[in-house]
Amino acid sequence: MSLLITNVGSLVTNDPSHGTGPLGLLADAAVVVEGERIAWVGPAASAPAADERFDAAGRALLPGFVDSHAHLVFAGDRTAEFNARMSGQAYTAGGIRTTVAATRAATDAELDANVLRFVTEALRQGTTTVECKSGYGLTVEDEARALRIAAAHTPETTYLGAHVVAPEFADDPAGYVDLVTGAMLDACAPHARWVDVFCERGAFDGDQARAVLTAGAKRGLLPRVHANQLSYGPGVQLAVELGAASADHCTHLTDEDVAALAGSDTVATLLPGAEFSTRAAYPDARRLLDAGATVALSTDCNPGSSFTTSMAFCLAVAVREMGMTPDEAVHAATAGGARALRRTDVGTLAPGARADLLLLDAPSHVHLAYRPGVPLTAAVWRAGVRAV
Ligand SMILES: [Zn+2]
């Protein structure tokens, strides 16, 4: 079955060979979908015939968002903590333990229903690929359970046993690292594609983070790092040194950190929802882009520090507060996220790519930043299937 989406006012392909600029923009365009894949993109006037036809009515079509950083396996919420923070209290990594207690107490069915709820919520807003981390179990059984549940919803699963030191190991962080790199890793590796660590004061230092990432890599897990969120630190340099796909947060960077990212394949994934929800200073996307680093935007969806599934919200904040142009922000939320997941089949709309499409109720992708907070999703296709 083939589908022609025609009368597209503005098409973002993210493939410069198909249009103008880094977004590969094409006006008066059409797309042909065959099964799960894009078969053709080009001017509407020269589009081939297809079994079915969808009239985009002059609206903008872009690749579905790629949210490369989310923590969706959890129970409970932290409304009170957010409320206190907005009344002046500071954010610390320790709040994670509140969610750990609620998550451990939840049933498999409750956790699965929560993941489904957030994946569906994200899909309605145009997110067609989402990464999902463990990290609220912090026991061998609870971390493996989180990854099993996440793997039912996305192939992009990340083992984050090293989110914070489990409460049982408060006096023995070295013992906890041994667990994370030993029995917990053994139980989790079959269900995960990635290994991650929260490299931060109050969580894990550089040596501990290196031990976690190296152990994961030995089991075939690819590294990514929560780096330089709350303070300067070794996370970014470690990510680059170990060839991590992504260094996430990148809020406090030295010139050396920026240069290391720019000279590497490690994507700088910025998570403005976290700074928004903790009332902290935003990362400087302009500095990273000007240095030549690849930037991704993601939600960091989690109940403590960024409880949003909205890529459009993050994109609008990045434009308003982080020095990104609307084009750069759209690229970062699609192609950038794909790079951060080392995926070539999503984040672009070129022949052969997976047919993940977001049709906006707007004539241009710029409206994602221009009309903040407005639901602009007109239609979503995931792997060629109309999902919204
Ligand atoms: Zn995170």
Counting DSSP E segments of at least 2 residues, the number of strands comes to: 17
What's the main sheet like?
Answer: 8 strands, mixed
CATH topology of the largest domain: TIM Barrel
The residue ranges in which pLDDT falls below 50 over 5 or more consecutive positions are none
Q: Give the cofactors and ligands.
A: zinc ion
Task: Assign the structural class, choosing from mainly alpha, mainly beta, alpha/beta, alpha+beta, or little secondary structure.
Answer: alpha/beta
CATH class of the largest domain: Alpha Beta
The percent range for strand residues is 15-25%
Mean pLDDT over all positions = 97
Helix count? 14
Overall tally of domains: 2
CATH-derived architecture of the largest domain: Alpha-Beta Barrel
CATH superfamily membership of the largest domain = Metal-dependent hydrolases
Q: Specify Rg, calculated over alpha carbons.
A: 20 Å
The coarse overall form would be: globular
How far apart, in Å, are the first and last alpha carbons? 19 Å
* Helix percentage range: 25-40%
Subcellular location: Cytoplasm
Organism: Kitasatospora paracochleata
GO molecular function: imidazolonepropionase activity
Pathway: Amino-acid degradation; L-histidine degradation into L-glutamate; N-formimidoyl-L-glutamate from L-histidine: step 3/3
